[in-house]
């Protein structure tokens, strides 16, 4: 999963159709497909493939709302900018506040994924004290990179982007070979959950990186015509990759898939031997670390922009050092991420991310309904039956969000209350 990158904000460069497609695919594919196949299979059995496909198609509807708003509102920032324009400063602040929190959880989730993958090569990392020590070392390195200027970011990003796609293609190819020689056999796990909704909701995590695509694609030539086509193509490609990868792990590993912490690596190893597992894990480590570095760079920028661009946060959160890095936002973001990664599990972070993303999707879709006929804004992209599709997306999100645990709801309420206190205190200070 990737958030909209601050490195791309404000650029006037026209993007080719092919560039947008590659950016979209890279932005969406994250750690989820490498670590979640077993969880999805346990929750829905063979139906996990359907859960992935339906989650991808549903995300496409949500992505279209972002695309339509991006074509009407030129400001960078995504959901919080749209909410601020439609519903005022407080709703805009809360949307941005949860967007920042989403970034913090994503950093924690990617680091948890990294440590899980590393444990496949270095078993000592599975020990709690070693796990925590390695996590804190990585957090410290991310702080240094962000404070001194992320010059290495582009290099890591490019390498990780290529590796994750190469790995998935190799695994799918291995699955194709296995099916051609052994046949297609999809077995149900012995203790599969009957709650398809849980798998459906979990699968959404694998697509939450789409939000950069509408902003980038809007810089294409004739976006009104090409953007919907680009969105559909990107989502179909990613859905195909995810679906085939899920089928591959089910076919190769069978019911043992539920016990695999690194299912993609285990499936590849079953075909090419132990060296295959090592190669896949090394590729996963670089890929996941690349996402973690990128999100650790983008998330403090999002917090700083809330303080500097719209004055929705106290100015202290926007303070920068000599390198231009928002050091207060960096320390706060990565400090909280450190606390999370040493106290929670990957799957717990996934659930929090999906819930926080759903909240942003709701405010964005509602903002589209509010602004679609605003005479002060450009006409933007028009899609046939858009109100019907956006209404359906809202109902779907409402249905899925009810599957969240009480702990997830409690954390969301606490985050909202903390944000409200900060907002009220800063508003009162400004009015004095």
TrEMBL record:
One of its GO terms (cellular component) is plasma membrane. InterPro entries: AA/rel_permease1, APC_superfamily. Pfam families: AA_permease_2. The chain crosses the membrane at residues 15-36, 48-69, 90-118, 130-149, 161-179, 199-218, 230-253, 265-295, 324-342, 348-369, 381-401, 407-425. It comes from the Bacteria. It is found in: Cell membrane. Keywords: Cell membrane, Membrane, Transmembrane, Transmembrane helix. One of its GO terms (molecular function) is transmembrane transporter activity. It is a multi-pass membrane protein. This is Amino acid transporter.
